[in-house]
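Researcher: Here's my situation. A collaborator sent me these components and asked whether they could plausibly form a single complex. I don't have experimental data yet, so a predicted model of the whole assembly would be a useful starting point for our discussion.
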Amino acid sequence: MSLSVIKAFRSSIFKKIWVALSGMFLCIFLLGHLAGNSMMIINPEMFNRYAHTLISNPFIYFAEAVIVFFFFLHIFWAIKTNVENWRARPISYHKRATKWDLQSLASATMPYTGALLLVFIVKHIIDFKYGPYYTISYEGVQMRNLYQLLLEYFGNIHNVIAYVIAMTLLSIHVLHGVWSAFQSIGINRSTLNTTFRRFSYLFSVIIVISYITFPVWCYIQGVK
Amino acid sequence: MSSNTMTLYLQVWRQKNSNEAGAFSNYEVANVSPDMSFLEMLDMLNEDLARQGLDPIQYDHDCREGICGACGVVINGEPHGPGKQTTTCELHMRNFKNGDAIVIEPWRVKAFAVLKDLAVDRSAYDKIIQAGGFIKVNYGNAPEANSLPVGKDVADLAMDMAACIGCGACAAACKNASAMLFAAAKISHLALLPQGQVERKKRAANMIKAMDELGFGNCTNQGLCEDACPKGININAIARLNREYLDSILTCNF
Amino acid sequence: MSKIKQLDSNSPTGPIETAWDRHRFGLKLVNPANRRKLKVIVVGTGLAGGGSAGALAEMGYNVEAFTILDTPRRSHSIAAQGGVNAAKNYPNDNDSIWRLFYDTVKGGDFRSNEYSTYRLAQCANNIIDQATAQGVPFSREYGGTLSNRSFGGVQVSRTFYARGQTGQQLLLGVYQSLMKEVNRGKVKLHTRKEMLDLVMIDGKARGIITRDLVTGKLERHYGDAVILATGGFCKTYYLSTNAMASNGASQMRCYEKGAYMANPCFTQIHPTSLPVMGPFMSKQTLMSEALRNDGRIWVPKAKGDHRPPNDIPEDERDYFLERRYPSFGNLTPRDITSRAIKQAVDSGHGVGPTKVAVYLDFKDAIKRDGLTTIKEKYGNLFDMYTHIVDESPYKVPMRIYPTAHFTMGGLWVDYNLMSSIPGLFVGGEASYEYHGANRLGANSLMSATTDGCFVLPTTVSNYLGENFKTLAKIDDKHDEFEKAEKSVKDRITRLLNIKGSKTPNQFHKELGKVMFDYVGIERTEEKLKHAIEEITKIKQLYHKDLLLSGDDAMNIELERALRVEDSINLGLLMARDALERKESCGAHYRMDFVDDEGEAQRDDENFCHVAAWEYQGQSEVPLRHIEQLKFNNIALTKRSYK
């Protein structure tokens, strides 16, 4: 029997490998985004300059393309997987025993948290990338004042709450996602399983705490 | 041992054959002893049905000691019912209380067609094995057994994987009706042992190809399969399968 | 003139060590180009059936394999826990093929064929090699070599094992090899199909009629030879350690077509199964014999002692096996242990709520070796016990009682495993071969695998080679197929139309009770005559008062009804055989044939033979033919475990 490697790339196992690899990339992106965002707390000027450097660099188009590509990969295979999965059980169980621990909840809700996060990301890009354009000058260089936009945006408590919810969803998504990626690409094993589980908890907690800090911090700045 | 008998209210999936639609029927079973096994309770119900001139409930069963893998129904949403590492035949009625309502359904997996009532067709698992779950060695004079030493840890791990009874609970429990744990157990068993090395790469590729073609869902690493597995096979097996498969596809010469 | 025949087993003669090799050299071969023109039908897919189907397909024959289960991987070979014997002598404890042969013949109380049994002991080593090559994960030592343990009271460590699941692992090896041939297109697999008749053309077995258990459709399958490997028939006792499908229906189908049934009275009653918990019980779970290595069996000295076991002081306990058999103690062979347990219970010393059990106590072992050691050795068995009985053997002694476990008897076959019907071969527990009147622990996997993987492929080839030119070209339109299918159809219609008041299961339970009480551990002429009367009554009533619900499509009750009908006839034959065997040997213990100490008294002068029964009609008494057994290599001695 001859096997097509291309076909194998569409197999059930490769589907989750694609989701895992793209997910890992997106997690790294989250960390980078986190590092950039944290500058807003250190110094508004530093933050605005960082943003300016990023968007004024022609390399940004390539970087954005890469990010979009991985998002697309992640979403495409996730949707395909889920559609096939629903088809694999035409009649669902009348009664289903549900486990209520966080890990199980996180894994069971991946398609839903994922879909909500997609909505969030679209809104996030509209709100910030294509949001109001304030300017500011540092040493004669004019640039976008993203900091002002942030303070204004998160001055609204509804936006803060929406972000806190979205970041909680994200942390739930990565709680399963990070461990799952190690499992999918096959480096998990009995001796490392606990480590990977702990790592995914740690990652999830870091993401939720740090990303929630930003809107809350902005809100507090506005109140002051 | 207890002598208090129970009355239970069953909701059982009845389906005449694989072509007709099924529905639930309700039955009341009295005088259930806590020492009965779940299948003995169903036997008793069938005797009642026979006396009423009704069609008996079809279900698969054979050894009734948890090794053949023939039995298996979903009891209140759990394949093989409550309790860790038990098959339906090993489940005793002392796990239920007087007056309990019990929903009994067949494995709901597209690749396992319902044949009648609670009996499903699991030949898809045979087809996965058929695609490569073996070592191609003919009967006759095999080499002296001790000429090929196998480390105890490896042999023990291979045995953990080989313990699979092919009952189908993993696919039944899986949110996605995926057979990944089943395939992982067999591929692991043979990949771990030195005897399985020659066909190792082809085996993983061929068995997964067969599995995908049979209409099972995809694995999303939820782990419901390992909770349902009556033999305690762990999803680390699936991680091993993933790397076996990756290795197979990326480095194969075929 | 007497119609009683002296059967010839076609055994080789001369030195036993080289007999199989010499015999094989004399067997006919089939040219590889001709093998693809021949088709073999294999009924049953356990170690014997699945093994022979796979092996014959590898050789190039076309094979059609049938199982009543949904996949070959579930056949009852799977349930053997303990292990498989082979005289590899890895532990260097002076084991040898000769010793394994000797132990098997002596263990079987000298009622098996010497030449066949020697071949079995010889082939055992191949099983280990073969299974290892197939990827069976046998337990290993740290150095990577195979591990052995002592099992069933033998004094050498010759048992190979894969945890407590040796049968499962051997079967999966055979199953995987079978699926390899299915994939190659050499084996056509038929699952959920039950053989309901044997079809004979020109006096030779040429095909079978099956019923598709899903659709109810009757089908005709023809071939050039038929192998029957459908296991034992312990379900005749209703309660047994066997799977629900372990019935003798397929053997009875062949028996009624003229195949002889040999030694049906030899049934092994295993001493350590869980006691009956209530009338609903459908099977009794076996607790591995290995438990007797550390557990001590006892009953209270006083009759009807109701105290909880831990309240009974040491000097009020009767460790009856240690008392009666001081040199073997708790490790006496299965038949002797079962009998001693039954005697203890019958004399009023039984324990537990039903008083039909004895204690198997680990208190001393835990004290001696520590809880951890015992947990390591028997943890899974103790858990299983707790699961079923809801008591912890770490705290209170287990309660055990004997139950039917293995049928040494089965269809009569010659040295080539061919029955009295030419072209019908029988292997594994379905035949009577090897185990005589009692089977030793870990010998059943050995015999089923030997038959399937090593003997049948050779001897079936010989038959096909001999008959290649004369076997008529047939297809399923042949008159005999028409006739056979019609008779099966009539039988199903007849059962469905009785419309009586008792379910097949009720009849089966009644049969089982008679069988266990009167054709069980202890037999007497009186009991056996009573059994024949009772079973005849059950048989008559069955045809008048059977209640069968459902239709002739997929129907769990109809499956049962057909098998129970055959079980009743088989039970009758078992009782008849037990009545005619006027001696005690092995598992067949006649209380009216004992020595001065109450121990079994064999009668080598009159009964050193295999009894092979020939069917004469539904209400006729069958003929009892004889295959004389000769012991030239092992002296006939009294089997004593005192």
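Model: Some features of this prediction you could bring to your collaborator: Chain B has two domains: 6-116, 123-251. Chain B is about 35% helix and 15% strand.
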